[in-house]
Amino acid sequence: MDLGLTGKRALVPGSTKGILRHVVEQLVDEGCDVAICSRSPETVARALRELSGGRGNVFGRACDVLDKDDYESWIGEMAEAMGGVDIFIAGVSAGGGDDSEKNWWKNFEVDVLSTVRGCEAVVPQMQQAGGGAITLVGTTASLETFGTPQAYNALKGSLLVYGKQLSQSVGRDKIRVNSVSPGPIYFEGGVWAMLKDTMARWFEKTLREHPQGRMGTPEEVASCIVFLSSPVASWVSGTNMVVDGGFTKRVQF
Ligand SMILES: NC(=O)c1ccc[n+]([C@@H]2O[C@H](COP(=O)([O-])OP(=O)(O)OC[C@H]3O[C@@H](n4cnc5c(N)ncnc54)[C@H](OP(=O)(O)O)[C@@H]3O)[C@@H](O)[C@H]2O)c1
Asked: Does a structural domain hold residue 176?
């Protein structure tokens, strides 16, 4: 299937590893130009080298989305380099952790505010381009009780509300807004690889509770994000796609 992504221009912050790195690889394979960042200049330089020579072009520089001014500059620079923005994939996260006030502020600033700032910056770009697609990355930890009460679960959930309501307000501009909520995803260097070592019993319990007896791969989530962000999903907006291999137990009406 041709996803219709050739020549499209995508912003994917926080994308040198994990799910979003695979999103970038798949978008480039489809002929999309893509802008990447992470906080580490070395990691971004390595990713740019590894991703060069594909069907699409890759742009990027180091940027911490916590830094409002620098993040907005990064968006402006990348949009200029690519000649506009058609796709925005927002999934930078401060991750889960202790339920401390410090974590609530960090998750609010990284997960929520950076997403809102990004959307506010790209919507005018997409209006100019005649349409676009925004895909937010949530988590199944917002959909059902998972672990302890914590900022990550609650504030990722707030993005589902934001994404839905944004989809209503920008629909007339032919901009679609969707969310993807992954279940546990395993990759070397990722959070579940770390939990396998530091919280082995929790890791094993999670695996035991999974009907497929394994965790997902970053590629499996990336394919769904790429599909939803592509013109092939032209009639999908305001939805939350759960990508968990059947991990969550609720009925999704
Ligand atoms: N992995 C899972 O099991 C899972 C499950 C459900 C949902 N998710 C969601 O999926 C998304 C991706 O998670 P992931 O586990 O694949 O990857 P990840 O380990 O969260 O890392 C993703 C990328 O984000 C960059 N990054 C982190 N903080 C940043 C910041 N402040 N500014 C700019 N870049 C930053 C990292 O590079 P640097 O560290 O070099 O900056 C890295 O390239 C997140 O929204 C996460 O909540 C993941």
From this structure: yes
